[in-house]
Amino acid sequence: MLPRLEYIKQARVRLGITQRKLASLTGVSTSMINQIESGRCKPSYDTARKIFEVLGSLEGKTSMKAGDICSRHLIYVQKDERLHRAIELMRKNSISQIPVFDASKVVGILTEDGLAKIMVEKDEMELKDVRVSQVMESPPPQVDVSTPAKALIPLVRFTRCVLVSEKANVIGIVTITDTLKMVE
User: Mind giving me the DSSP string for 135-172?
Assistant: First the structure.
């Protein structure tokens, strides 16, 4: 099933190409592209498919991927480490969340909000012997390096961070700040 025809103009404008350029890439006349975009003409299925294929290939070449915007210097802790070590790493590196691993597998995350709740519940003496695994939250979602960066924006807004993997190995993290790289 093809996308709606209104998408043709939106995609063309977003890509910054003219009707003439789209027409030459698809083998359709400029007049036909104009008529399709204005709603005066309904193209055949084959013509519409060809237009969408060209637009899709152009978007694939120009759009950023998760691997392009992720921070590849991943700071993390192991689940058996003391909570104080995780807090120290977070403060030293000015980060608001830190992934938790069990060897090479992601098993959770520590966040500033989660740590604030724990600190309210326990006094400082109780926190000295707490292990990361005792207070970590569920792990954040993971995406492949080739995932379109635009698809990450709603996910990051909801989960605060997304881990980026390549060949099943976590290689980076995307936070809300990282999504701003798409504007540059």
Answer: H-BPPPPEEETTSBGGGHHHHHHHHSEEEEEETTEEEE
Q: Which pLDDT belongs to residue 152?
A: 87
Distances (CA, A) of 65 to 27, 62, 174, 182: 29, 9, 11, 10
Q: Which CA distances in Å does 24 have to 29, 30, 67, 74, 150?
A: 7, 8, 32, 45, 28
* CATH label, 67-182, candidates 3.30.930.10, 3.10.580.10, 3.20.20.220, 3.40.50.2300: 3.10.580.10
What stretches in the chain show pLDDT beneath 50?
Answer: none
* Tokens found for residue 58: 């152009």
pLDDT of residue 134: 93
